[in-house]
């Protein structure tokens, strides 16, 4: 299913996106050395509930997971990159943490992710991973305009990742979003320009470049959810929900 949102739905999408961005910004500030991943999950639950929103994750049970997910936010540490299941782990200095959050407010969903380093020890190679995903996301957003194709966005992402020397996994990527969290079209993190769905104003996309330092292969934890690099290398993941406008793209998941 591909949804094109009405002006009223787009207004609601902006509220949802701002909520997601604000929660992520708040959780990043709270995620200091010694904080437990389960505390982060509880804080996310409280902020979602206080806003009158609903989690997209608690009852999420896709074919690739051991569902339902049962938590309110994905917390991926170091070699974990996607679908990180919160568990009893206290953050340490130098940990590379990814928080991925999706909520629904007033019938419209938004999805975003941030990666950052906890504490004072910031390895240059970790900073490079994060910065590369941020640049790849910016490149994809810059390619958004009515009449562009999904392949143009995928190629923009893949070009940045490849030029930085990182392998690219094609199993998971960005996606359409609207009344539900995951919709068509799929936005792979590499692709051929001029191919795929033609972008139209009112389309929402969750664009999410992610990388692993030295492999494109994922392995799944025993929890049935958390995806890690097969080599144990560090990872990073950056995501925004954007709306296609008459002139380009509007980022919806920035904090207010």
Automatic annotation (TrEMBL):
Its cofactor is Co(2+); Zn(2+); Mn(2+); Fe(2+). SUPFAM superfamilies: Creatinase/aminopeptidase. Substrate binds at residues 83, 182. Gene3D superfamilies: Creatinase/methionine aminopeptidase superfamily. InterPro entries: Creatinase/aminopeptidase-like (IPR036005), Pept_M24 (IPR000994), Pept_M24_MAP (IPR001714), Pept_M24A_MAP1 (IPR002467). GO terms for cellular component: cytosol. A divalent metal cation 1 binds at residues 100, 111, 239. GO terms for biological process: proteolysis. Its EC number is 3.4.11.18. Keywords: Aminopeptidase, Hydrolase, Metal-binding, Protease. Binds 2 divalent metal cations per subunit. Has a high-affinity and a low affinity metal-binding site. The true nature of the physiological cofactor is under debate. The enzyme is active with cobalt, zinc, manganese or divalent iron ions. Most likely, methionine aminopeptidases function as mononuclear Fe(2+)-metalloproteases under physiological conditions, and the catalytically relevant metal-binding site has been assigned to the histidine-containing high-affinity site. Removes the N-terminal methionine from nascent proteins. The N-terminal methionine is often cleaved when the second residue in the primary sequence is small and uncharged (Met-Ala-, Cys, Gly, Pro, Ser, Thr, or Val). Requires deformylation of the N(alpha)-formylated initiator methionine before it can be hydrolyzed. Belongs to the peptidase M24A family. Methionine aminopeptidase type 1 subfamily. Monomer. PANTHER family: METHIONINE AMINOPEPTIDASE (PTHR43330:SF27). This is Methionine aminopeptidase. It comes from Microbacterium oxydans.
């Amino acid at each position: 299913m591909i949804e094109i949102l009405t002006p009223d739905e787009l207004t609601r999408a902006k509220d949802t996106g701002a909520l997601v961005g604000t929660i992520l910004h708040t959780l990043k500030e709270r995620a200091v050395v010694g904080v437990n991943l389960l505390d982060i999950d509880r804080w996310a639950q409280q902020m979602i509930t206080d806003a009158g929103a609903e989690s997209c994750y608690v009852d999420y049970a896709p074919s690739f997971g051991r569902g339902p997910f049962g938590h309110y936010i994905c917390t991926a540490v170091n070699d974990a990159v996607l679908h990180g299941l919160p568990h009893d782990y206290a953050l340490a200095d130098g940990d590379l943490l990814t928080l991925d959050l999706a909520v629904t407010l007033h019938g419209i969903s938004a999805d975003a992710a941030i990666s950052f380093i906890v504490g004072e020890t910031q390895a240059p190679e970790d900073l490079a991973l994060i910065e590369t995903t941020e640049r790849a996301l910016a490149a994809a957003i810059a390619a958004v305009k009515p009449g562009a194709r999904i392949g143009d966005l995928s190629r923009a992402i893949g070009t940045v990742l490849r030029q930085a020397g990182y392998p690219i996994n094609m199993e998971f990527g960005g996606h359409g979003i609207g009344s539900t969290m995951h919709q068509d079209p799929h936005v792979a993190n590499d692709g051929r320009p001029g191919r795929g769905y033609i972008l139209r104003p009112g389309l929402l996309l969750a664009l999410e470049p992610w990388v692993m330092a030295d492999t494109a292969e994922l392995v799944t934890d025993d929890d049935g959810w958390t995806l890690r690099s097969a080599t144990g290398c560090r990872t990073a993941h950056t995501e925004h929900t954007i709306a296609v406008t008459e002139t380009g793209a509007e980022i919806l998941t920035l904090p207010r």
